[in-house]
Design goal:
Strand order of the largest sheet: 1-2-4-3
Structural class: alpha+beta
CATH topology: Ribosomal Protein S5, domain 2
Order of helices and strands: HEEEHEH
CATH architecture: 2-Layer Sandwich
Number of strands: 4
Shape: globular
């Protein structure tokens, strides 16, 4: 589980990361990363739209992405903001596929 200090909570912050961030596309997700010089832990946000599926499917995908980010948080540089957008194909992806995609993108764009 991600602590409150590790979450992006405001809509304006999501918008900033998506518009200004460096993008990394994968078959089931799109990861946006912005970095700053602030000395704070990395923050994560998740976008899972209704195109992914019903509420149960969306929440399952979101929980899987949160678990992946909680594992990879220590490999992400301090001050980074990461937003992960789940694509509709994420509904059929298993945990290992999502983990591989997200960790690859984080290693390319936000490695410590």
């Amino acid at each position: 589980m991600l602590a409150r200090g590790n979450r992006i909570t405001r809509g304006a912050e999501y918008k900033t990361v998506v518009r200004r961030g460096v993008r990394c596309a994968a078959p089931h997700t799109v990861t946006y990363v912005t970095t700053s010089t602030e000395d704070r832990p990395p923050r994560f946000g998740f976008i899972v739209s209704k195109q992914v599926g019903g509420a149960v499917v969306r929440n399952t995908v979101r929980r899987r992405l949160k678990a992946v980010c909680a594992q990879a948080m220590y490999d992400v540089r301090p001050g980074a903001d990461v937003v992960i957008r789940a694509l509709p194909s994420a509904a059929t992806a298993d945990f290992a596929q999502l983990r591989d995609e997200v960790t690859r993108c984080l290693a390319r764009r936000a490695a410590a």
